[in-house]
Amino acid sequence: MAIRPIITAPDSRLKVISEPVERVDDALRTLMDDMVETMYAAPGIGLAAIQVGVAKRVIVMDLSREEEPKAPLYFVNPVITWTSKELALYEEGCLSVPEFYEDVERPARCRVEFLDYHGKAQALDAEGLLATCIQHEMDHLQGILFIDHLSRLKRDMMLRKLSKSKKRQAEAAE
Ligand code: GNR
Ligand code: NI
User: Fold this and answer.
1) What is the CATH number of domain 12-166?
2) Is the pLDDT of residue 103 over 90?
């Protein structure tokens, strides 16, 4: 397993629409293992493949608490087949938008159909943080970030700050 670098905004790669996976094989499981290791190291509760530069429809998640055993979830070719009319507000963050947190409103519950780590078809009904996280990760597969749900003013301000801190980092690395 290996930790892969996480791409941060602004970066055109984060806007790419990811492609469906053709088969769940050992090469894909290696990617998923690396994604889980990368997510734990960050640390984060979810990660989409595009965040490590791979434009495949793959998501990993783990919402277990620190004191609980790890419980990684793997979603290949996920499709949201139902969302509740009721909405919920969550303060979201993103490993690709470091150090910014903002409230985003999304359907409170959803159903997702996907292939698991072994390529088996599964369905999951989600609510609470799990429902929010699934929708946040599904957005990544469409090239969308949580900041795209905010006002243009807020988004542009955040992107300017992110761009400046990237430049500073690049200069410091010279
Ligand atoms: O670690 C993460 N926390 C989080 C908190 C609220 C809503 C969504 C998330 S996902 C985020 C990790 C990430 O960027 N996944 O794409
Ligand atoms: Ni994210």
Assistant:
1) 3.90.45.10
2) yes
From 22, 66, 86, 137, active-site residue:
137
What is the position in ligand 1's atom list of the atom closest to the CA of 136? 8
| CB neighbourhood size of 27 (10 A) | 8
Active site residue 137: yes
Q: Exposed, middle or buried, 32 (CB in 10 Å: 0-12/13-18/19+)?
A: buried
Cα(64)–Cα(20) distance, integer angstroms: 27
Query: Would the pLDDT of 16 be above 90?
Result: yes
The predicted model scores a pTM of 0.98
* Residue type present at position 43: P
Domain boundaries, the chain: 12-166
At 105 the pLDDT is 98
Residue 107 Cβ < 6 Å to ligand 1: no
